[in-house]
Amino acid sequence: MATLNFFGGLSIQIVAIIIISLAPTTIRCLDLTRTQTLSTLTGSSGQQNLDLSWGTNATHIEVQLAYPTLGWLAFGLSPTGGMDQADVLFGYVNDSTKEVVIQDRYLTANMAMMAVNLTLDTQQDWQAVSGSKNKTYTTIRAVRRLRTCDSADRPFTNSLTSIIYAGNFVAPLSPTATIKKHNFRGTTSVNFLQDDNLDDPDISSEVSMSLEFRMDNRTITGDADTRYNCKLTTLPNFEKKYQSIASQPIINKQNMKQIHHMLLYVCKPLPAQYSSRDFFDCGPTSNSFIMQYCQNLIGGWAMGAPETEYEPADVGLPFTPEMSGLQVVLQIHYNNPERKSAYIRYN
């Protein structure tokens, strides 16, 4: 409201009313340009193959789930690859009404207490696009913003993200009915925003030397769901002091499902009985004593992490002439929850 005063004591009050219509943003039919087949953990229902497809634009992601079930389907973004604190897309096709039900939920799990809660979000960010089912499969399709500003949601980012997925053979009777425990489930890691046509980032500009520490090709057996392997490599001779300004992983994309994280340590001079060893088991339960000499961490990577560049620009990790000939150990943690035998090819 504004008041204009005129000569003669006359005043006029002007009231301005501005009405803005804020219609909800609706995105439909993004092209599903990416598809990944997901394998479930072997259980009482046997192994299932599920199809996850998605497409993105600058602001939204559209996801399609096609699972071999006539019940409910779920897919979630997880901070650790487990159920706790996962942001979940939950859906099904109602048997009676044929309604496509899409829900935004948040999962908490306390395995010590055997307590799992899949609660409905106050803010529902997933929008239904379509859904159907035939005699064996149910398919649902939904869209949401990449970032929702909802504290119960996790953003889709250009990095490797842990996801969980599950399904049950029976659909809930209503959107508020009790949800029965999954019949099948699984976990993996996906970068939903990565362009497969792009090359790995180049951090080699203005670099006078580069060092690579590689693991040999290995067969991962299915007798354990986690494994740690190490390889020793000898540093070259440094005629002067160098500063490492960046590091990046070198990973065969076919191995992304098995590799959980990598750590690089520089070792003190090793006793003779250890210095000739090349490859060895180095997990928490290993009897190897080599790692007690290799405690100086100089590099690391975990799934979801990008390449590392040291900041500020005038800071680096020093490699000095005194380090010439020291040995470095590359430790890789392999995650194999499905206990499958796999050939890990690095070259």
Q: Give the strand order, joined by hyphens, for the main sheet.
A: 9-8-7-6-12-13
What is the helical fraction, as a range of percent?
Answer: under 10%
Gyration radius over CA: 27 Å
Order of helices and strands: EEEEEEEEEEEEEEEEEEHEEEEEE
Largest sheet: 6 strands, antiparallel
- Give the structural class: mainly beta
From the spread of the alpha carbons, the general shape counts as elongated
Question: Regions with pLDDT < 50 over 5+ consecutive residues?
Answer: 1-27
Distance between the termini: 72 Å
How many helical elements?
1
Approximately how much beta-strand content do the residues carry?
35-45%
- The tally of strands reads 24
pLDDT averaged residue by residue? 81
Please describe the topology of this protein.
Blueprint: E1 2-5, E2 11-14, E3 34-39, E4 49-56, E5 60-67, E6 73-78, E7 86-93, E8 100-110, E9 115-120, E10 127-133, E11 138-145, E12 161-167, E13 184-190, E14 218-220, E15 226-234, E16 242-244, E17 246-247, E18 259-266, H1 272-275, E19 279-281, E20 296-302, E21 308-309, E22 317-319, E23 327-335, E24 342-344
Antiparallel strand pairs: 1-2, 3-4, 4-5, 5-11, 6-7, 6-12, 7-8, 8-9, 10-11, 12-13, 14-24, 15-19, 15-23, 16-22, 17-21, 18-20, 18-23
